């Protein structure tokens, strides 16, 4: 998945619109974007919406955090949606492996987990969380992470302008842990949804760190995210030429003035694998 569009379950019109976008995955939110008073209504909306939903997109529901009084009602909703297009649940504010084990016992077994790492405690436990067999992906939650660590902010989920790259370290840790165990890794949203330059910079950084995609909070962000997480024709051509050059050599080879080796070939093969998945 390149783009994951998060929409509040309390807004039926937004739900309908989301499935008409080019987002690869739709995340229906019951947590932060829904007020406490609106959470029962959101669950009712979602259950009604799913009755007629037909889609080829990956569909997820973000539940309320483990400590919330809402989780019993959330579980009842997930049970009611068995057999439909729901593919996974998003688990927010996962701090430890025990949190994952709790949800594993609590929720129906047929839905995989997509885990949000949103705290200092979550970050130091990322590898153990990623190793769990039910975890499908890890996603960075920048706003809550910044609150957890006391990082100064210029906007929600955005580091201060004096240190704009402050979130690269935690995102990199999440990507490394996810890929070490064969899981997907996603960057969190860029909150200044009208700032296309800022979004492009954020998405380019995430891809450079190895992230597989990025959350979106507005439909206008999707095309930029999709473009930046899709290998270009030039990248695909170069990757194939690197593979061919190495395969036709007896070891390390000269490719347009660059020394390439087995590691170079693996990087190129991974890019081609990504391109193949996207264009299926």
UniProtKB/TrEMBL annotation:
<keyword id="KW-0479">Metal-binding</keyword>
<dbReference type="InterPro" id="IPR011206">
    <property type="entry name" value="Citrate_lyase_beta/mcl1/mcl2"/>
</dbReference>
<dbReference type="Pfam" id="PF03328">
    <property type="entry name" value="HpcH_HpaI"/>
</dbReference>
<protein>
    <submittedName>
        <fullName>Unannotated protein</fullName>
    </submittedName>
</protein>
<feature type="domain" description="HpcH/HpaI aldolase/citrate lyase">
    <location>
        <begin position="2"/>
        <end position="219"/>
    </location>
</feature>
<dbReference type="InterPro" id="IPR040442">
    <property type="entry name" value="Pyrv_kinase-like_dom_sf"/>
</dbReference>
<dbReference type="InterPro" id="IPR005000">
    <property type="entry name" value="Aldolase/citrate-lyase_domain"/>
</dbReference>
<keyword id="KW-0460">Magnesium</keyword>
<dbReference type="GO" id="GO:0006107">
    <property type="term" value="P:oxaloacetate metabolic process"/>
</dbReference>
<dbReference type="InterPro" id="IPR015813">
    <property type="entry name" value="Pyrv/PenolPyrv_kinase-like_dom"/>
</dbReference>
<dbReference type="GO" id="GO:0000287">
    <property type="term" value="F:magnesium ion binding"/>
</dbReference>
<dbReference type="GO" id="GO:0003824">
    <property type="term" value="F:catalytic activity"/>
</dbReference>
